[in-house]
Design goal:
The chain is mainly alpha-helical. It has one domain: Cytochrome p450 (Orthogonal Bundle). The protein contains 18 helices and twelve strands. A three-stranded antiparallel beta sheet has the order 1-8-5, with no helix packed on it. Strands 2-12-9 form a three-stranded antiparallel beta sheet. A two-stranded antiparallel sheet has the order 3-4. A hairpin with a 3-residue loop joins β10 and β11. It starts with a helix and ends with a strand.
Length: 485
Amino acid sequence: MEALIDFLKLFPLQASHGTATSIALFMVFAALLYWYSVFPFSQLERAGIRHPKPSPFFGNMFLFRKHLRLSSKPMSESVLLLRNERWKHVRSILTPTFSAAKMKEMVPLINTAADTLVKNLKVYADSGQSFDIHQCLGCFTMDVIASVAFGTQVDSQNNPENPFVKHAKIFFSFTLFRPLLLVFMAFPFLIDPLAQLVPNKRRDQLNNFFIGFIKNMIKQREQQPPNERRHDFLQLMLDVRSTNVYVGVENFDVVNCADEGGSSNGTPKKTQKRMLTEDEIMGQAFIFLLAGYETTSSTLAFAAYLLAIHQDCQKKLQREVDEFYARHDAPDYSNVQELQYLDMVISETLRLYPPGFRFARDAAKDWNVNGHFIPAGATIEIPAGYIHYDPEYWPEPEKFIPERFTAEAKSQRHPFTYLPFGAGPRSCIAMRLALLEAKIAMIRAVQKFTFQMSPETKIPLELKSNSTLGPKNGIFIKIAQRTDS
């Protein structure tokens, strides 16, 4: 009912005919959703495909060959080709900006945001009170995005009236990202007509603010001497704005580090004529904000929650971090790779609570999978969250066991049983940055503090799964200053 009310609010219509129109539009949506769900289900049932028991976290999905769902109406080949070429063009230029070498340049910006995080956590430790760690870590990820993607320094927790912070918070509280986003996920072809049908002054104000903000930052960078420019994502995009060098699709797979191949093995990079436009730069900055804020803050908050519950795991991690600081002054891109148990903790957190709990892929050509025909243009939906709880691959899937991710354990599993960042050429391009950000924040936090349960700590957590998976009502824990470090 709450989702229905939010959906109807999107249509600013008055009088009785307005209410009738709103109800009619919702009924159309419900009919589309029913058709979208029932048609592929009936097709699969006729094919004799059974469906496994659904995970309690991720709901019942109509699964194609256990872990895939096939949409009922394939996209036209011309539309698919055009969209794929647009994506490939931008991805080919941006992939090098997320390489390991570029990540090293962004570490000082992340460490600066982590300094602020530690100061804020100390306030909570001194108070001894329970607090929402998800909200606190959300401020950290907001600071990182503002710094790395938008080239501006903020302290979103202590300066909530900063124009960037204020507009970003409005952006994430915007009604569009709740019920209407579900419509767009289910029916992508409705995005353009519905966006035009639903006028929204606040949406336009947000667009104008961020577009103006980015344009102003671009203008400032152009006027600065090269040696004074920040080493952030915005500058990297500006650096490649006029380049005609790009990497091939075979180097797009960030998860398997294939994107490093073009620069490390001597393979020559390719060239193309069309460059990155200012609109594409602004679009990528928007995507960075949308995809990088809540996903990383939720992952960090879930990790803190799990460590608060599993004190033995937290003590083991703290010992590893203490040994790390005996060797290094501060975390950077290279030395964080030494922290194997930290990597296990983050990996197991992402298995239990994958922010991107489902993703989709379009079939580029006709294909057969285990004897089932998939036509070109069909959309395949992969329920990553469901796979992460499949007892066939994960014994006792509800338990937090970081040792599932030892090198030996990983070598014995199929790599596609763990998909927090997707896989293949369309895997998450910012995976390295997200993991680097999460690891630095966790290193800095557990070095100084211990996460603890409080009377307000919910076990199990209540979750929401709108656009991404996250805590429904925050994550309340306590934090204490360490005396044994």
